Amino acid sequence: MSNKYKTPFDELDWSEMQKKYTDALMAFKSPESTMDSVWINAMDDWWKSAKTDMPYESSNIFEKVLDQCRNYYFMSEQFSSLLEGMNRSKNNNDQMTDFINKSFKEIESAFTSGKNSFNLNGVLDNFEQPIDLMKSAFSNSSFDPDEILNGMNPDLSKLREQMLSIPGLGYSREAQDKSKNAIKLWANYQENFQEYQSVMLRLNQEALDLVREQIISMSKEGESIDSMRQIYDLWIESNEKVYGEYVYTKEYAELNGRLVNSMMAFKKQSHEITEDMLSAMHMPTTKSMDELERRHYELRKQVNEMRAEINNLKKQLQLKNKKAVVVKKESKPVVRRKKKTKKQMTANSSNVVELKQVKKKAENTVKAIKKKTKKKTKKTSADKGMIEIKF
Amino acid sequence: MSPFNLKPEDVVNEIHEFNSKLAQGYKTLADLGEIEVGVSDKEAVYQEDNLVLYHFKSRTKKQNSVPLLIVYALVNRPYMADLQDGRSMIQGLLDEGVDVYLIDWGYPVSADKYLTLDDYINGYIDRCVDVICEKHNRKKINLLGICQGGAFSLCYTALHQNKVKNLITTVTPVDFHTKDDLLSHMVREIDIDQIVDTLGNVPGELLNATFLTLKPYTLMGQKYVDLVNILDDKEKAMNFMRMEKWIFDSPDLVGEAYREFIKQFYQENGLVKGTVKIGDDIVDLSNITIPILNIYARDDHLVPTDASKALEGCVSSKDYNSLEFPGGHIGIYVSGKAQKMIPPSVAAWLEKRTK
Question: Is B147 among the residues known to form the active site?
């Protein structure tokens, strides 16, 4: 370890200290102290002291690792008692199955009852379930609904609906309506969130059942489990399998849709309330920024279009010049003879082919005028005695 | 018979061993320092707004005369294609004599939120293609799209085929309504208009959360317990940290482009149906007649193989080839197996069609 990160804790053999601590506690055989709480507490205390010396990126990762270690310790503790009992019940398959079923009921209740501060929701939290991630993703603006509506009982939805349906009064009635609508939307989101959580809880229980079934099946087929890590992996795989099957259902797509849509609806309403407050204080609002950004976008688009048009014209011009040079070389003697005309027509050094056509047209026009004028001159000169002009 | 070949003291010993590795891991992580990504030498040849077009420095004397432009997705960062020495698709392509360009979309800001797919495909990509064509005095270049960048490349080719000589798509979704497309299934009932109208640009964290929830227990749990076992090896720990950095390095998604992409591609499956509208033009994949190499990953959990394979039935190219990689969505760019398979295959395919 480099000197940069050297701390007094570097010299401490944490795992050795922890082993001694565990041994001492086990010697006491305290009924209140469980293995996982010992491991978790020791780890947490050590991490509190050590994390300040770790670079942010590494510290962030290490936090995630420790979160998973907590789950691992928790699982180890739960399955330790199962192991102890199974070792006692030896070879009878029926007895074994009964024992596994009974033990899993205890394990399940440990997961769901909050024992050792680790209930199933706690485990889910450590896995950062979708809703938690979405909550953090959406929590970058407006007021925090958790703070203002904390404790609202969703069972009182009827009463809530009635209360929130009372029309607003007086000068600020629009603002009142918006606030009430925000509360309705929040309650709707809360209901969806609770439904989502209960579904996730059900899936986790199903996964635990799957672990139990697999252990029974292994017991019957004479397969062995040689480490706690194997049980942990089995638990992960079972969760993934149960979750994976459920998320492909229409029910999940609809639940997920309701959850995200209700969250967004609330978010949008709360934005509007914040905007109104800012506007009343003559502060810049997101709406005004949006308008500026939209105009800016339109301008950028116009600039790009004009730039493309200019480039296109430049290319066309270059192409014409190239063609002109080629034709110029090819028709050199002709051009020399009609120098005067060429100068007039190619002031911008343009196309000689075009020039030829124009010249020809001009000559034809001149001939036509001559013809016409001759006739006219004959007539008029004879009648009016004017001098005949010859071209 | 008990399946447990374990005694309680074995459990205690196992946990202590795990803890020792964890303690060692702390030291390794504290010593790692800055996580560097991107290995190949490159220079910026064009810049516009947040976009940078990079040209990679050649690593061979002989090069394929037609340059290759890599179009990356708007999600995550393009250094995944050039992660580290020996684990870089771009390095592999350079070693095979391919002249490589790459579009880096950068990190969009709030002012970019009105950019549409038209701005990306007929604007940014088209201008990058023009820059490369002009630089090499060519009318056509080769195009390689990655994931969503592959879908963009398909749209671009359908609309500007006169500028594309050969097209390579990698892990590219074409049919967004295959049975096993979980991502598509998850967004089917979501009100995209409401998300964009509320948030403007869509936070990168939200996208990340969506990807992680495809396999939450493995990607957010087991992965970190596995990490403890490799933390005594500094090199392996560094490899892990590079990937971790890439996974969570998620730029926000431009609101309007997100709205159009999710609605037209994911919800309406417009690429297959021929209803995707980019600007004023409808994208008709059957217009594509140039040679295509479609590379997909057998174990892809983000873009199922069927979603990619559908391309063959949509285009009119007579010279259509496909290549299945035995791995996942990310492994196709960074795994050791991929280094041996993908760049040589791409280079050989291009070489044959460049003469």
Answer: yes
Catalytic site residue from B128, B147, B155, B314:
B147
Contacts of A347 (CB under 8 A, 6+ apart): none
| Mutation choice for B interface testing from A81, A228, A310 by most B CBs within 10 A | A228
Map out the domains of chain B as residue ranges: 42-202+252-352
Asked whether this complex has an ipTM greater than 0.90, the answer is no
- Are the beta carbons of B191 and A301 separated by less than 8 Å? no
Query: What is the C-alpha separation between A382 and A214, in angstroms, rounded?
Result: 126
Residues of B in contact with A54 (CB under 8 A): 26, 29-30
B18-73 pLDDT, tens per residue?
888 888 888 888 888 888 899 999 999 999 999 999 999 999 999 999 999 999 99
Domain boundaries, chain A: 1-119, 128-283, 331-384
- pLDDT tens figures, B140-172: 999 999 999 999 999 999 999 999 999 999 999
B42-202+252-352 carries CATH number 3.40.50.1820: yes
Nearest to B216 among A243, A258, A290 (CB): A243
Give the β-pairing of B292-297 and B320-325. parallel
Q: Rounded to the nearest 5 degrees, what angle is found at the Cα of B329, between the Cα atoms of B323 and B331?
A: 85
Residues 136-165 of B with CB under 8 A from A: none
Instruction: Report the C-alpha gap between A226 and A211 in whole angstroms.
Output: 15
Report the pLDDT value the prediction gives residue A122, as an integer from 0 to 100: 39
